[in-house]
Write a structure and sequence with these properties.
The structure is a single chain. This protein has 188 residues and is of the alpha+beta class. It has one domain: PH-domain like, CATH 2.30.29. The protein is 52% helix and 26% strand. The chain is built from 5 helices and 7 strands. A 4-stranded antiparallel beta sheet has the order 1-2-3-4. It has a 3-stranded antiparallel beta sheet with strand order 5-6-7. A hairpin with a 4-residue loop joins strand 6 and strand 7. Helix 2 runs antiparallel to helix 3. It is elongated and about 100 Å long.
């Protein structure tokens, strides 16, 4: 969790902590990651053995390939839902200079739904997770989420805990107000 708090710190409020992070399934990125790995890392190594005098060219190619591979991994990792102690944060990362995030407060969530359709989604356990806002509108959908049932369970668990804590705090505040009123009236 420390790594998640560190990497996603720009999206968090001061007293906010991440309790769960939901990502898209890595299988969705298999073509991009395989392409970057083969063309950017494996090919320069092969060409180095075939044409060793061009070592600097192959080294430069491998370096650029490594950076592109890291970029593809970052693209997967930073497209996430952050389930925190205050809200759900939908983070969309479209590059180093293009980010977007939106918050969904727990008290506005009316329902959650996950959908697993098809052979590969069933076998590899990934699918879509939808959050419905009060009034029936779908606020956010994470397509091809890894372990969608776990994502749903975690959100429900955190939502229940947050709403219960809020209710308890409101109950304590109301009790304090009533106790203050009774004390004030007894003095008269």
């Amino acid at each position: 969790m420390f790594l998640n708090n560190f990497l996603f710190t720009n999206y968090l409020e001061d007293s906010e902590d991440i309790w769960f992070v939901a990502h898209k399934h890595i299988w969705v990125y298999r073509k991009k990651l395989t392409k970057e790995f083969l063309l950017g890392l494996v090919m320069p190594v092969i060409f180095h053995f075939v044409y060793p005098p061009f070592f600097l060219l192959w080294l430069g190619w491998a370096f650029v390939g490594f950076l592109r591979f890291l970029y593809a991994i970052a693209d997967w990792y930073y497209d996430a839902w952050l389930i925190t102690n205050m809200s759900i944060i939908d983070v969309e990362w479209n590059g180093f200079f293009s980010r977007q995030s939106s918050r969904i407060e727990y008290h506005t969530i009316d329902g959650l739904q996950y959908i697993i359709q098809g052979f590969w989604q069933t076998i590899l356990n990934y699918g879509n997770v939808q959050i419905q806002q009060i009034g029936g509108a779908i606020v956010v959908e994470m397509k091809e989420a890894a372990r969608p049932r776990n994502v749903e369970r975690e959100i429900l668990k955190v939502q229940e805990r947050v709403i219960s804590d809020k209710s308890r705090r409101e109950h304590e505040a109301l009790k304090d107000i009533l106790a203050g009123l009774v004390q004030h009236n007894m003095r008269k």
